[in-house]
Design brief:
Elements lengths: L12 H11 L2 H10 L1 H12 L2 H15 L11 H19 L10 H13 L4 H14 L2 H12 L4 H8 L3 H24 L1
Helix pairs in contact: 1-2, 3-4, 3-5, 5-9, 6-10, 7-10, 8-10, 9-10
Length: 190
């Protein structure tokens, strides 16, 4: 006797968002939110620097976002919820007039690979190769590099602005930096 096995797959974020908009079911938001609790807790702990405050912020975010979520145009839920958590924590810090914690900004670490090329004595002569090499990059790399280094956008901001996945943005920036460095070195060796 043959029994068909049925595999029920967990709906992805986009599917849950679609269901939420169509039906307004709170359970869809609950499922989405619960997937990202570890991320939210990490973000809140990073900014608030106390476990109890981070836990309270995660709960407050749930209560705050649940009735509002249907009004937002969300392309990538992970990016959106990360930004919502970060903004919530920054508002909490401003309300209590606590200092926003200084963190080593990834932008400074990321930009070291490009800016060191411009800090050398022949920086002026390297400016033109940088511009030319930037134009030679594949479009996603070029866009990501421009947003990140010249407009000082975060990975999450770039992902939200372009609709690309966060991991793709990180990859575009890393590959773009490597390709820029190779191109600039080739052009300045001539």
């Amino acid at each position: 006797m043959f029994f068909a096995q049925t595999h029920t797959r967990e709906p992805d974020d986009d599917e849950l968002l679609r269901r939420l908009r169509q039906t307004g079911q709170d359970s869809c938001f609950g499922t989405l939110y619960s997937r990202y609790i570890p991320l939210l807790y990490g973000v809140c702990l990073k900014y608030l620097q106390r476990q109890d405050l981070a836990e309270d912020a995660v709960m407050a975010l749930f209560e705050e976002l649940q009735p509002k979520i249907a009004r937002y145009e969300i392309r990538e839920f992970r990016t959106w919820i990360y930004s919502a958590a970060k903004n919530h924590c920054l508002q909490q810090l401003r309300k209590t007039k606590r200092e926003i914690p200084h963190e080593p900004d990834a932008r400074f670490m990321e930009s070291a690979g490009i800016t060191h090329l411009l800090d050398e004595p022949e920086a002026v002569s390297r400016n033109e190769p940088l511009k030319a090499c930037l134009e030679e990059l594949p479009e996603p790399q070029r866009i990501s590099i421009r947003h990140f280094f010249f407009e000082e956008m975060s990975y999450a901001d770039i992902a939200e602005a372009t609709g690309w996945h966060l991991k793709s943005v990180k990859s575009y920036i890393q590959n773009g930096k490597r390709n820029l460095k190779i191109c600039i070195e080739k052009r300045t060796e001539r």
